[in-house]
Write a structure and sequence with these properties.
Layout: E1 13-17, H1 20-28, E2 38-42, H2 47-58, E3 67-76, E4 86-94, E5 97-100, H3 104-114, E6 120-127, H4 134-142, E7 147-149, H5 152-161, E8 174-182, H6 193-205, H7 208-217
Parallel strand pairs: 1-2, 1-3, 3-8, 4-6, 6-7
Antiparallel strand pairs: 3-7, 4-5, 4-8
Length: 223
């Protein structure tokens, strides 16, 4: 966990990722500018672990009002994507349905400033319980998704379920920002994986200022 909320502190920000390397990138990139307590939570891989970890943290009194961002790496689904591109979900899709994201346009603008020169793609981010390749990846793209990962949909669905008001106007703010580490023309099994991974890692280290700007711009109701 990161810095705990204290008396009079602003609403917290919970950033959830699956892997140790993702947590390291996000933690090592932290800078000033947060409007409240921030923690980077490593959930472990897969939707079930994401649900359990996020539910546990949001069940704590000091974190019950937290805004939530799912972050880390993902697989891009569009043929024009490259390692290091950014994905900002306008919704996440999973077996329990779609979860709309909060402040997507604001987050895109903040990321363009934080990581200049990197492509930012916006659209549906779909969840899977396994690594997606080849024909399955093409099928997901045909359904309208622009990227796939294993935890974002479960993370955001769990975060919304932990709030009192679901997807209403006073719902918990949630977002998903992922960095493409492989894409249809740059799959992980191909030569160039290391170069793509390093590129994605560097981008992930640079996103914290955008997350803090998004967080500062939110009007978070105290429940």
């Amino acid at each position: 966990m990161g810095r705990e909320p204290g008396p009079g502190a602003g609403p917290p920000l919970l950033i959830a990722c699956a892997l140790g390397i993702e947590q390291f990138a996000l933690r090592s990139g932290e800078r000033g500018g947060a409007s409240g307590p921030v923690t980077v939570l490593r959930t472990g891989m897969g939707p079930d672990r994401a649900r359990r970890a996020v539910s546990r943290v949001l069940g704590e009194e000091s974190w019950r009002d937290a805004a939530v961002i799912a972050s880390g790496f993902c697989a891009g689904l569009a043929p024009d994507m490259h390692p290091g591109d950014l994905i900002v979900a306008d919704e996440t899709r999973g077996p329990d349905g779609a979860t709309p994201c909060t402040g997507t346009e604001l987050l895109v603008k903040a990321l363009v400033k934080a990581v200049p020169g990197r492509a930012v793609h916006t659209g549906p981010l779909i969840g899977s319980d396994h690594v997606v390749r080849g024909p399955e990846r093409a099928a997901l793209a045909a359904g309208g998704a622009i990227a796939v990962d294993m935890e974002s949909a479960a993370t955001l669905r769990t975060a919304r379920a932990a709030g009192a008001l679901g997807d209403g106007p006073d719902a918990r703010p949630v977002a998903a920002v992922r960095v493409v580490v492989d894409a249809p023309e740059h799959e992980l099994v191909r030569i160039g994986t290391v170069r793509g991974g390093i590129s994605a890692f560097r981008v992930l280290r640079a996103v914290l200022p955008a997350f803090f700007e998004w967080h500062r711009s939110l009007l978070l109701p105290r429940r």
